[in-house]
Amino acid sequence: MSTSDISSIIIRSYQPSDLSACKATILDGHREYDYDLRFFNQIFQADMADIEKNYLQVPNAYWWVAVSTDDNRIVGQVAVQPLRLGDPIYYERTPSEERDEICELRRMSVAPDSQKHGVGSRLLTTLLNFAREHGYRKVHLTTLTHMNKACAFYEKYGFVKGDIDRFPIDESNIE
Description:
Blueprint: E1 9-13, H1 19-30, H2 37-45, H3 51-56, E2 62-68, E3 73-82, H4 83-86, H5 88-93, E4 102-110, H6 119-133, E5 138-141, H7 148-156
């Protein structure tokens, strides 16, 4: 991807034919963090098992992909859900008067060869505009603390680190 040609990227709605490319983008975008593949299988079997049902058919939720018009390749993605679906634990801890004003940023990933070219910024801007248009006042996200590049990206756009929760890995939940 050319560093000067962000215009060759379009942001569009997820389509069912995008699923395998979306899975590959998540795997490629997280490869440097050396995750166990079982982690990805778990998310592929959860909300990504039916993106239409879990995002596109849910009020105030959505999924976008970034597509290179040079080769029609998906080079990034991002999704949003109401907080009650995206992070039920945080939802329960949030004051009841704020809960439904917060959405959860989900499944943000940019292909390694497309990082540092504005793709992530365009995806995030798309999500933030959607959030405003749908009455959300805050965007929440969860990422791992050792994902330094991701944390720096979000902080650059005004996200603030909140509570750090530690969850034990339950091997019975990972297949």
